[in-house]
Amino acid sequence: MSKKTLNTANLAALGAERLAELLIEVSTGSADMKRRLRLELSHNLGPAELARDVRKRLVTIRRAKSYVGWRKRTALIKDLRTQSAMIIDKIAPDAPADAFDLLWEFLALAPSVMDRVDDSKGDVGAVFADALAEISQIAARAPLDPIALAERTWEAVQGNTDGAFDGIITRMAPSLGDRGLAHLKELIQIFEAAPLDATEDHPALQFLRELRGGNANYAAQRKKRFVQMHLREVALAQGDTETYISLFCPSDLARPTVAVEVAALWSAAGNHDAALDVLEGARPKGKEAGRQAWDAAYIHALIASGREDEAQAHRWRCFTETLDPEMLRAHLKQLPDFDDLEVEEAAKAHAATFKDLNATIAFFLAWPDLRGLAAMIEARAETLNGTHVAPLSDAADALRARYPLAAALCWRAMIEAALWESAKSRYAQAVDHLMDCAAADIEIEDYGAFESHDAFVRRLRKRYAHKAGFWTRVT
Question: Could you name the domain of life of the organism this protein comes from (predicted)?
């Protein structure tokens, strides 16, 4: 390796004195580099000295008011990462209590920093998220008073406008312990019992909300949701499943995603009947969001309750309603030999006539059963929706080698849809599909009831002769 290559060994060979001279030289005019060098000098004097310098820098960042444009945005992110790294990597190993205080101060900077910068890309927020991920480990090594920590945590929760302290109760739970969590719960309950801030529940604001068709009690309801959310977090940290669940209102429990979460807690506590009750109260309709997780939780609870037959029946019902291939596989695994073959054929027959053609295509591709997919496409060719480009493209790509006629029918549907809708952005793709049809024509021995490739092209030229943007691309 060349001795001129920039690496640690070659630079170390220059000697400490020469390196120091070079650092002074290259840092001239660079405030960032000078700041970094001063931090390293402070660290050399001990963690207490470094902590003082980091704290000074955090104060400066907090007091800044000017907007940070895109030119200075990278420098701000670098500065924030430097301060975070000094706290986590340099101070925490030897002075965890100081590091904890500093990291908390660092996270508290988020609102003022976010007010001064456009974080549409999320990379400024990512700096605070990375710092938050480290705080519980540092707290575990710091001698923290649980009561004071509870009060600090509650203050952070109330001011968490930018998400820098998201989940802080859970993160602090080990350090809070029973005393701290109990005190935190008291603080939340005191806040709950206190009257609303007059500025939030002013009669004029209530009147305006009513005029707009909103809820006049918006402030009260928002406070209630805020309190319940954090009391639930405390209850979960305390391992108090019943209290945690009791803090959900009926409308929350009617949501499948919430019901799945609550059912998992009941199941973990061994109360499978309660898990089933809460799930049945939030049964999703059709392909409602959270359906897959709900079905999995429901089947798990049925099996845990010894209701295997009902679990098996639910698997089949799920498949018939959604064509979920994993549900069918799980169902078939529970069947005796030979019975599974008969049921599989019945399942494929059901899938072939399923009303959602995209779901049908997805099922046959995932199973996989290309023969069944080809037969289904030929049988339902008139109903193929060429605007659904993704599923038809996937089907055609899978079928082109062994079932060229079915592939061509998919391409034809997409071509006609593009021409019918004058979708010029899809013309290039439609021309490619027409070439695919021509290539498939060589492999197709019998078009059966379908028109030949030449007849298809003639029909297109007659019906869409005016689509010059398409035909000029056809060679």
Answer: Bacteria
What Rg, from alpha-carbon coordinates, does the chain have? 32
Instruction: Tell me the CA end-to-end span of the chain in Å, nearest whole number.
Output: 56
pTM over 0.90: no
At 40-52, the pLDDT tens digits run: 767 667 788 889 8
Is there a contact between 301 and 275 (Cβ–Cβ < 8 Å)? yes
Positive or negative, the CA dihedral 62, 63, 67, 68 is: negative
Residue 51: Cβ-neighbour burial (10 angstroms; 0-12, 13-18, 19+): buried
3-state class (DSSP) for residue 263: helix
Q: Please give the C-alpha separations between residue 271 and each of 249, 288, 437, in angstroms, as whole numbers.
A: 20, 26, 59
Taking the C-alpha atoms of residue 392 and residue 14, their distance in angstroms, rounded to an integer, is 65
Output the six-digit token pair for 321: 């309603």
**H/E stretch holding 111:** helix 110-114
Look up residue 196 and give its DSSP letter.
Answer: P
Shortest CA distance to 34 belongs to which of 16, 57, 55, 15? 57
Residue type, 416: E
DSSP state, residue 91: I
Q: Taking the domains of the chain in order of start, what are their residue ranges?
A: 24-65+73-143, 145-247, 368-475
Cα–Cα distance, 366 to 325 (Å, whole number): 7
- pLDDT single digits (tens) 279-312: 999 998 877 778 999 999 999 999 999 999 999 9
310-317 contacts at long range (C-beta below 8 A, 24 or more positions apart): none
